[in-house]
């Protein structure tokens, strides 16, 4: 009897494993179909009809269904008719978006239909911007951590409302991670070099070492800002995907230009106009992100008049600050090889130091078959290994030849992980300018990494700390490599050629040169529409009526170690605040 019972238990376990495997393999199909029932208000742009809610106009038109735009739309729809326009497609059913193991594949996809739109800043650093419903939450490393109390006070937000808005996000799409071995070693080595105390698992931004939240669940499935649309009122919200807004439409008959609606193009290339209601409190809200929002203002005729005229764009509102003050947090990565296979992990551990740098880590992505064979985009051997050759000579044939050679490299060469060092508050800034009037093209973006000596010194201090971590017994015991010299540690990263910046012979002798030559992005760029210069404290565009901005372009620093938590919260927060300001107690929030 006992043997029969054991056999049944074993069969049941096999059945559960089979169900999990089936669930994982069919997950994309499941999401694709279930999303049609859960989000009936999401439609293709070509289905647009102006009177979708029985009216000829909307109370709010939100441009950009990303990290802030989705929670903002869901919140406003509780009381008002909302149109949300997203230039990308659906995240549901896209395995490259949904699965942690495919994180790097999305960034490697440079096709026109990718969820990630590839661009290179004028600094020569490879970068990406989201092009999908859910925005950056669909292509990032998933780490979730709140901003500091100092940041919340600095931007002038109501802390009580902030503390109601964060949990609204967290209850829906945030998880406590199962800590990977690599991340535990990073924790131990951080504590060993003095980044203390250990604060355990917390969303809070406090000095020391901690584990943070993640938008990946225990099965490695990503949950994005698009899922924050679920609480929306389906009778009051319309979401259009593949709706590329060309410009904001203005009524210029008064003393100040007044936003009247938007012009957008659907997936078939046909143009449509959507209009606001006649209420003075109705608004077009730009949530296109730190690249897309200043670009959209410029395309709409809001920006430096001379630049607009140069592009043959009629000036609606002259503002010299649009596109100025663009900043990106420089990141430098140190590769740590391992003699044994390393489990894949994205950011789980973070060291919040008192010297202006954050330390994070990832592991295991280099040694997968997909990783060895594909072009990684941001950590790009396919482009980077040719960085000593002028860009015009980096032919497709040369790149393909490298890819073929790469497949012959033993998998063991790719084992290990990265320790990432990010400058917390860069002083160096740049600018964004149009190079085309096509809304689908990338603008020209300059970040001027390390232009300010303080940023460079912070990087040097951070790299010194990373070297100590790699040389610690925590890492030597884990990787089974003997303690290595500083030159050898840095040479493995310097020789990877991760950007298009020309290399120098003394990369491993000078930490300053190493920082400059191996600089990367961690996609935390911000600015271009600063408070007091482009928008007021309520994020309303200065000099215009019925136009507001809700995204990271209004920030002069990136919130927390990783900004997605605060930008999602910002969408919820601003939605609640708009409802309160417009309806008072009747808002019921």
TrEMBL record:
Pfam families with a match to the protein in the record: GMC_oxred_C, GMC_oxred_N
SUPFAM superfamilies hit by this protein: FAD-linked reductases, C-terminal domain, FAD/NAD(P)-binding domain
MF-aspect GO terms: flavin adenine dinucleotide binding; oxidoreductase activity, acting on CH-OH group of donors
Record lineage: Eukaryota, Viridiplantae, Streptophyta, Embryophyta, Tracheophyta
Disulfide bond keyword on record: yes
Domain Glucose-methanol-choline oxidoreductase N-terminal: 289-303
Disulfide bonds: 459-515
Binding site for FAD: 86-87, 132, 245, 523-524, 552, 563-564
Cofactor annotation: FAD
Family that this chain belongs to: Belongs to the GMC oxidoreductase family.
Entry protein name: PROTEIN HOTHEAD
Keyword list, A-Z: Disulfide bond, FAD, Flavoprotein, Signal
Highest taxon in the source lineage: Eukaryota
Signal peptide coordinates: 1-28
């Amino acid at each position: 009897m006992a043997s029969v019972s054991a056999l049944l238990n074993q069969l049941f376990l096999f059945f559960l494993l089979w169900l999990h495997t089936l669930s994982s393999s069919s997950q994309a199909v499941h999401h694709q179909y279930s999303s049609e029932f859960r989000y009936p208000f999401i439609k293709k742009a070509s289905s647009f009809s102006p009177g979708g809610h029985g009216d000829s106009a909307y109370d709010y038109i939100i441009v950009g269904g990303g990290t802030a735009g989705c929670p903002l739309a869901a919140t406003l729809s509780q009381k008002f008719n909302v149109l949300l326009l997203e230039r990308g497609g659906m995240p549901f059913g896209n395995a490259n978006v949904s699965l942690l193991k495919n994180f790097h594949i999305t960034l490697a996809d440079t096709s026109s239909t990718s969820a990630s739109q590839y661009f290179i800043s004028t600094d020569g650093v490879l970068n990406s911007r989201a092009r999908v419903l859910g925005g950056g939450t669909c292509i990032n490393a998933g780490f979730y951590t709140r901003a500091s109390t100092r940041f919340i006070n600095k931007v002038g937000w109501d802390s009580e409302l902030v503390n109601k808005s964060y949990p609204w996000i967290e209850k829906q799409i945030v998880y406590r991670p199962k800590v990977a071995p690599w991340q535990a070693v990073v924790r131990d080595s951080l504590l060993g070099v003095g980044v203390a105390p250990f604060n355990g698992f917390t969303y809070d931004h406090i000095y020391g070492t901690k584990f943070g939240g993640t938008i990946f669940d225990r099965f490695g499935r990503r949950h994005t800002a698009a899922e924050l649309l679920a609480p929306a009122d389906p009778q009051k919200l319309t979401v259009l995907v593949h709706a590329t807004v060309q410009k904001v439409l203005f009524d210029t008959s008064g003393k100040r230009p007044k936003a009247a609606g938007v012009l957008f193009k659907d997936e078939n290339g046909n143009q449509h106009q959507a209009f606001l209601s006649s209420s003075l409190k109705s608004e077009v809200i730009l949530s296109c992100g730190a690249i897309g929002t200043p670009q959209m203002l410029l395309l709409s005729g809001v920006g430096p008049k001379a630049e607009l005229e140069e592009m043959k764009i009629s000036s609606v509102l002259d503002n010299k600050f649009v596109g100025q003050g663009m900043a990106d947090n420089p990141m430098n990565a140190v590769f740590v090889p391992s003699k044994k296979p390393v489990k894949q992990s994205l950011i789980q551990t973070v060291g919040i130091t008192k010297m202006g740098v954050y330390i994070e880590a990832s592991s295991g992505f280099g040694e997968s078959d997909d990783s060895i064979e594909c072009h990684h985009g941001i950590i790009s051997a396919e482009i980077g290994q040719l960085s000593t050759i002028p860009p015009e000579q980096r032919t497709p044939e040369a790149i393909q030849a490298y890819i073929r050679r790469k497949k012959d490299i033993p998998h063991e060469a790719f084992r290990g992980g990265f320790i990432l060092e990010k400058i917390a508050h860069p002083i160096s800034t740049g600018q964004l300018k149009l190079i085309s009037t096509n809304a689908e093209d990338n603008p020209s973006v300059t970040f001027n990494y390390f232009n300010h000596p303080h940023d460079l010194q912070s990087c040097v201090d951070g790299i010194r700390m990373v070297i100590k971590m790699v040389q610690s017994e925590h890492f030597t015991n884990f990787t089974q490599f003997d303690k290595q010299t500083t030159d050898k540690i840095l040479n493995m990263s310097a020789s990877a050629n991760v950007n298009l910046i020309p290399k120098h012979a003394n990369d491993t002798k000078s930490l300053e040169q190493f920082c400059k030559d191996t600089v990367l992005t961690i996609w935390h760029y911000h600015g271009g529409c600063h408070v007091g210069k482009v928008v007021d404290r309520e994020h309303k565009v200065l000099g215009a009526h019925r136009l507001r901005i809700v995204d990271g372009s209004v920030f002069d620093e990136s919130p927390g170690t990783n900004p997605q938590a605060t930008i999602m919260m910002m969408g919820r927060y601003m939605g609640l605040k708009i409802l309160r300001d417009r309806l008072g107690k009747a808002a019921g929030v």
